[in-house]
Each structure stands twice: as structure tokens, then as C-alpha cells.
């Protein structure tokens, strides 16, 4: 009986569907955060914040997008609106983007409810 159960368990383990590992690696040199709306990759520069959106590792087609970014670096805080530019969201401004700075992005993609993503710069 024990051999039967072991055989049955071993056979069922091999018959389970294989789950693909999702790819959350940065494609643009930024920091990736997974949200309900998709993966958001923030590329932070002193003069711009760019957010690339993907779904299971593939770029997401954006037909509409709005939002804002808030950058926290020590006691400094900077906010800027995000605008849809081609296939990404972009904010222009002056930002302190040192390692350890925190960025809060609030975005609405393709008419869906706003999601918040928190990034820590490396």
C-alpha cells in the first residue's frame, strides 16, 4: 500500500502543470515593481523620471495614461506630473536621484483605476 501511495504521489507531481517564471528583470536599466496594472520600470535621472510598463515581460500597449511621481530624498521632496510619451510615461523636472531615494508613482493606465508603486533607487 505504501508503494502504491508513493507511486501515485510521484506520478501526480510530474503531471502538474508547469508554471512559467515571470520575468521582472529591468529592461531599461531601472528598478522594477510589480503592480496589478503590470510591471512598472522606473528609470530615474536628474532631469526626468521615465516609467516603462510591461505585462509578463512584454511591453504593454498604452492608449491612455496619467499620473504623478513624488521623489523623496532625505528631507527633499519633488513632485511632477506624468505624461504619456509614445509607449512610456515621462515626468520632467529637477530630481535628486541618489541611491536610497524613494519614489512614489501613482498611475492610471488605459482607463483603469490608479495604482501606486513604491521604488527605492539603487
CATH top level assignment: Mainly Beta
Could you tell me the strand content as a percent range?
Answer: over 45%
Question: What is the overall shape?
Answer: globular
Distance between the termini: 56 Å
Corresponding CATH architecture: Sandwich
Could you report the average pLDDT, rounded to the nearest whole number?
Answer: 86
Instruction: Compute the number of structural domains.
Output: 1
Helix content: 10-25%
Helix-strand pattern: HEEEEEEEEE
What's the main sheet like? 9 strands, antiparallel
Q: Rg from C-alpha positions?
A: 20 Å
Here the CATH topology equals: Immunoglobulin-like
Helix/strand/pairing category:
mainly beta
Helix tally equals: 1
Number of strands: 9
Low-confidence parts lasting 5 or more residues at pLDDT below 50? Answer: 11-20
Walk me through this protein's architecture.
With about 120 residues, this protein is mainly β. The chain contains one helix and nine strands; from the N terminus they run H-E-E-E-E-E-E-E-E-E. It has one helix at about 1-15, and strands at about 30-35, 40-45, 50-55, 60, 65-75, 75-85, 90, 100-110, 115-120. Strands 1, 2, 3, 4, 5, 6, 7, 8 and 9 form a nine-stranded antiparallel sheet that branches. Strand 6 (about 75-85) and strand 7 (about 90) form a beta hairpin. The longest helix is centred in the N-terminal third of the chain and has 14 residues, at about 1-15. It starts with a helix and ends with a strand.
Amino acid at each position: 500500500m505504501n508503494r502504491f501511495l508513493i507511486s501515485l504521489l510521484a506520478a501526480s507531481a510530474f503531471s502538474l502543470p508547469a508554471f512559467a517564471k515571470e520575468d521582472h528583470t529591468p529592461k531599461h536599466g531601472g528598478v522594477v515593481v510589480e503592480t496589478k496594472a503590470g510591471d512598472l520600470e522606473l528609470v530615474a535621472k536628474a532631469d526626468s523620471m521615465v516609467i516603462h510598463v510591461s505585462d509578463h515581460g512584454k511591453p504593454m500597449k498604452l492608449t491612455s495614461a496619467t499620473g504623478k511621481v513624488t521623489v523623496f530624498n532625505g528631507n527633499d521632496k519633488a513632485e511632477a506630473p506624468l505624461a504619456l510619451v509614445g509607449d512610456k510615461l515621462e515626468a520632467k523636472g529637477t530630481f535628486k536621484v541618489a541611491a536610497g531615494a524613494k519614489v512614489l508613482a501613482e498611475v492610471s493606465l488605459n482607463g483603469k483605476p490608479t495604482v501606486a508603486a513604491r521604488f527605492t533607487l539603487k
